[in-house]
Structure formats: structure tokens, C-alpha cells
User: Fold PRORP domain-containing protein from Graphocephala atropunctata.
Amino acid sequence: LSMLEKTDPFDIVLDGLNIAFKASRKNRSPSTFAFQLKSMVKYFASQNKKVLVLGRKHMKKWPSGDMSYVFNNAEVFLAEDISQDDPFLLYAALYSGLGTCFVSQDMMRGHKCLLSDPKLQATFVKWQAQHQYFTIFIDDKGGVGLKEPVSFVQSIQHNSRGDWHIPYVVKENLTTEVRVDNYHRHWLCLTKQSPPPQPTSGPYERRRQPVSLGRPKVALKSIFDA
Assistant:
């Protein structure tokens, strides 16, 4: 907490061990771990992002070449080796404000379940979906691939024109809970159509017209994958 109070808000918070362990099982070594972390720090530092790396003290033993870059281009907080680093990650991201994102493969399900209020759980999932990056790959040359957070709230929405956008899940992808890494990709979009012009007719013909004539109709506009 004292470190966060003394520094400006961070743009990005990195789960150091989580990123390092993204390496394939064949290449798992301290040198690979350090290179993975350095590549991620470099990716965001090159965008002039203020980076915070969270990890554990044993990471100091990783090769100094790549770790020197990490320490010189990011703020680094190393917790005790026996401690849990996820609470530090979430606290740092939330403390820095709504503009701060974080990188981790962890779904944070355990932390969500600690929230007894279902509304708070839903709020947490929405915040997580809009602020969490997932690492897709880090190649041998230091290239980084990330799955970015969603840029909009994935819930039923409508506008002043009466258009509705409704997310849905196809049966094959249906799960027992909303997952941040597989949020709604399918949307049903509905829009109002103007009623057709009524034909000119006498009093008798007007009485024979159905009651629904002239009411605004809702038509299927499109179904697409976001």
C-alpha cells in the first residue's frame, strides 16, 4: 500500500510469474522465465505505459540481463515466496483507477466467489472483462500476442431510436457461469420499422382493417458475431 501511495497510478499491472510460466514445458528455465517477463514489459513500455510488475522474491535469482531491463523499465513489487500474489494484483489494479488494466491468465474465480452479494459478483465480472489482458503467445524474438479486454459492456442495450442489442450464447457453448475469457460473442440486433402508409379508403374499409395496423413493428435487423 505504501508503494502505491508514493507512485502515480499505473497503466498496466503484470502478474509476473503468470506471464513467465506461459513458456512451453520444454523451455521452462529461469532464463526463459526472465525473457518472457522482459518481453511483456518491453511491449507496454514501448507504448509509454507506466508498468507495475508483481512477483515473488525468488525471481531475483533469475538471469540479471533480462531482469535488469524489467527493474529499469517498470516498478517491481516482490512478495514473500509463500504469499498469494493475486490479492496484490487486484488491489493494485483497482487502487490505480478505472483506467488501469492487468495481464494474467488467472480467471480469479476464487476471489469472485468470496463476494457474497450476486450483484457485486456481476460487477466484478464486468470490471474484469473490461480490464484483463490474456497472454496468447510470446515468441522467441520477444513478440507478444494478447487477447485484449472487451471495449463495451456485454449486456442488453438499447438506444433512443428504439434499437435493441441482445447478447446470446449458442447451445454448444453454454456453460454454467459467465466466463471472462469466453464472453458473449453473438448478438441479436433488433430495430423498429416505420409502419407502412395506410391506403385511402372509406369508413367501411377502415372498420375492416386489423387493430394492429399502424402499430410500430419490431424487425430482425441482423445476427452477427462480434
The mean pLDDT is 82. Helices lie at 2-6, 16-20, 30-45, 64-73, 86-96, 109-113, 118-131, 203-208.
